[in-house]
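Example (one chain per record):
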Amino acid sequence: MTVGFIGFGDMGSDMAAHVAKKDGREVLVYDIDPARLESAKDIGVTPVDGIAAIGRRAEVTVIMVSTDAQVEDVVGELVKSGRKGALFVVASTIHPKTMRKLDKEVRRAGMKLIDAPVVFGRTGAKEGTLVSLCGGREENVDKARGVLDCYSKAVYHMGPIGSGQLTKTVNNMLHWSSCVANFEAILLGKRYGLDGQRLRQVLINCPADNGSLRRWDSTRFTWHEKDMDIALDLAQEGGLMLPLFGQVDQLIKNLKPSQVKGLLYEDSTTYLGQEVTAMPAQEDS
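Predicted structure:
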């Protein structure tokens, strides 16, 4: 089986490398940035000069680009050039309704589509320990499993097309709310003189533990705006009031990795425009 990867960035390059290494399949890769493709041969994959080259040859193509619009453009090109029965796997995080729209287009062309966004980010991609959250017909997910298993520690079929994206959105809601809660809670401890990193390490062994806290050092605060836009759009379409996540949407936009670094490892940090340092220690009475 020939496998294609479209999007050879930080995530896609590692995912493609795992497929080539673990399964011995021929892996074709394409990215709009020629500089990214320069390293392709070094990791055992083959760079090609366009999407059509992958469409003509690949039985399964993994799409790992940034936005809904980019996914739509890629799928449109694959539909034009792809072979009948080819399977397209959207590993990008996009809106569930975009998946449903694309599924109709792909099926009319005699091809197949699933959504399989991933969690555990850059670290998971490097280690091959991502989790793939899948939506689509069961037989299509089963066809993709051999590829997904190469870079995933688990593959879950969540339901019809778009269900993987919906599951990813729910995960993202909890992740970003945890990031805000983690920051504010540790900030309180820091203000009263506790060492931020030591406090984090202790909390990991307490009921307050959460996955975001354990991965706090590697959280890069990327895509939070897009993630929360999808969540709040779905809430509005579904007639739901989610006031907590309206606040999370605003607060997470003000958090950056440099602030987490200051919180955990430095004398001071900033939050909502306020510089925060430890108050003078109180003497024992």
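Caption: The CA atoms of residues 115 and 128 lie 19 Å apart.
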